[in-house]
Amino acid sequence: MADTTTNAGVGSKTGNLLLDSLPEGDFRLIEPKIKHVELQKHQILSMQGEAVQHLYFPTSGLVSCRASGSQGELIEIHAVGREGLVEPAAILTSIAAVTAEVQIEGAAYRIDVDELCGLIRQTGELPRALLKYAYSLAVRMVQATKCAMFHTVKQRLVLWLLLAHRAHGNVIPCTHQSIAEALGARRASITLVLESLVQKGIIERSRGRITIANRGDLEEASCECFQLIKAGLEIDLECELLAKQSLVVTKHP
Questions:
Q1: pTM greater than 0.85
Q2: Which of 63, 65, 66, 74 lies closest to 105, judged by CA?
Q3: What is the 3-state secondary structure (H, E, C) of the chain?
Q4: Most buried one in 2, 120, 129, 170, CB count within 10 A?
């Protein structure tokens, strides 16, 4: 097992919060099935509409999950860091719902889709952890869509920075252009907002990276979307399906 103390803190099993939330019994079952891999910038982990063989639990870095249009244009739907799983929809269909591209290089634990489906049937807490993550992801996508439709570029950028901070850490390697592409905004607009945040002492900028200098003030500058997304991440799921531990995953050809 790779050393993950830099990204996850002392005592972490893997550095991925979803994996680390599993009880020891479940983790012992999944540990032989996962493989530590490096994630290179611009590496494609899945392509929208194509078959998926592997899923990834990032321990560092950031993966941008984007939807594509008929003319090849892309917009970010959500991003995944050490808190989650890249392309969970493939558990049900083996088909990618989004194009997942590594935006910030890092590392992950990779698992075969079929292996994970088998483990879901064998474990008690893994299905709950995956459903909780899927719920939080649905909340995030709903709020991100609302934010894109009704809120300003500044509010959308602040939301992106807060989620990137949660997923990757205090220092976010990125460019003005990469943020503009993720948000579907003009690069000039992103530059103006970042400059205003620098002047207020909320962030610091250097070439190719942004450092969050004052997380509290960044949250103060956010719209309500962040608090709703945060609540979705912290919810404790309870439902009859989980109580009976009768989750069955059917793979479609």
A1: no
A2: 63
A3: CCCCHHHHCCCCCCCCHHHHCCCHHHHHHHHHHCEEEEECCCCEEECCCCECCEEEEEEEEEEEEEEECCCCCEEEEEEECCCCCECCCHHHHCECCCEEEEEEEEEEEEEEHHHHHHHHHHCCCHHHHHHHHHHHHHHHHHHHHHHHHHCCHHHHHHHHHHHHHHHHCCEEECCHHHHHHHHCCCHHHHHHHHHHHHHCCCEEEECCEEEECCHHHHHHCCCHHHHHHHHHHHCCCCCHHHHCCCCCCCCCC
A4: 129
CA proximity to 102, closest of 46, 72, 67, 64: 64
Q: How far apart are CA 14 and CA 192, in angstroms?
A: 38
Mean pLDDT of 43-60: 96
Question: How many CA atoms are closer than 13 Å to the CA of 210, on its beta-carbon side?
Answer: 30
> Using one digit for the tens of pLDDT, what is the confidence trace for 14-32?
999 999 999 999 999 999 9
Exposed, middle or buried by CB within 10 Å (0-12, 13-18, 19+), for 49?
exposed
Contact 189, 153 (CB under 8 A): yes
Interatomic CA distance for residues 111 and 134, integer angstroms: 18
Amino acid occupying residue 83: E
Tokens of residue 100, six digits: 């997942």
At residue 136, what is the residue type?
S
